[in-house]
Structure formats: C-alpha cells, structure tokens
Input
Amino acid sequence: MSAINLLPAPGSRGCLIEARDVVKSFGQTPALRGASMSAGSGEIVAVMGPSGSGKSTLLHCLAGIFKPDEGEVWFGGRRLDGLGETRRTELRRTAFGFVFQFSQLVPELSAADNIALPLLLNRARRKAAYGQAASWLARLGLAGLAGRRTGELSGGQAQRVALARALVTQPRVLFADEPTGSLDSLTGEEVMDLLVGIAREEGTTVVLVTHDARVAAYADREVMVRDGRVTTPPGLGAVRSDAGAVR
Output
C-alpha cells in the first residue's frame, strides 16, 4: 500500500490540523456540539476543560479515531474524516503519535520491543527498528532498561517509553491525552520537559489535552472546551514563550 501524502511542504508554517464545527454523540449523549480548533505546523496547543467537557473526544476526532457525526477534520490540506478506516489507520501509524494518561505499553513486551513495534508494523527491518529503539532509550535517559517489561518500570519510566514509542516514527502530530495524569508532580514535570523539548527539536505539532494549568503552561496556546464547544476562538488565546510565560 502506498504511503498517504497529506503533508504540507517542509517548512510550512500554516495550519496543519483542524476541526471545523465538529459534532459527535454517543447514543443520545452529545460529546461535541460544533467544536472548532486548529494547530499550526510545529505548534503546541493545550486543550483544557473539566472532566466530561468533550476535550478527549475532540482529540480522538482530530486523530481520525472517531469520525464526527457532522463537521469536518482537515490534515495537511485534505479531509481526514472523509478517508476510510484503512487509510486513517495507516495515517495513525505514519503521521500521528499518541501518548495517553497511562502508558498503555504492551505488558508482555520489553521496553525496546514496545518502542520498535511501530517501526516493525511499518515494515522496517528488525535491526534498524531496534537500533532506533536503543537510540531513543538513551535519549530519554533509559539506557540499560531495554529488556525490562512494563511491570519492572516505574510510572515515569513507562511514560518515557510510551513517549519514545510515539515519536520513533517521526510523526507530524503528537496527540497527548493527560500524559502526566497518573504521575506525581515532579515526575510529570520531567516527562513534560522531555515531551516539549523533543517536539521543539523535531518540529512536531502537539495537541495536548489536560485539565492541569501547570501542564498547559508548556503550550504555545490554550483553547478551552466546555459542554462540547471550544469557547476560545480558533487561532486566539494566551500565547506563551518557550519558558511558559504569557507574552
């Protein structure tokens, strides 16, 4: 199967991913009621809101996991929600990376196995995949832990492995859903420092769902979701410097 070519030209600073008036319900329960937001190439956007506001559903729609009932999702200048499941799955393997509240590592696999897995699924050679896994383990301060399984890792170590797994394919967009929610504050800061630092180095767009203002402070911009609607207009909101201070 040929790779999906949905990406803008290298160096493009325009909008990379966007939800337009997205509506999504689960049975009779509305989750999104016309939500709109966008993220530019290399931008880190924090999506905030109380529990049940629809922020995680919005992330899942942007990532092509859920198809909206109404509205549109665009990525790289093309309709994402119009693609079939096979094409959206391929896109999630190649252009998107995911980090969730709990690491969601495969417990039967080692740290190196978990990191190499996305590359192997994309038919990379085994030696190259494990070479990349070793490189990422060292980059994230986990050298020497390649053979450990999930139960042998601390929460912070497991989340670093999950971050490496999400970034090993060099995705254009990293979706992070409460990535520090299961960690203590100090470990959470360490994970966010790594996530944001690597995203800046790689030019990766980050859509970061959180209810924690300290985590949102790492972002360039914040949007607020309440009752299924984005209350901060797309493209606006508090813009922050890399140090986290509002400018």
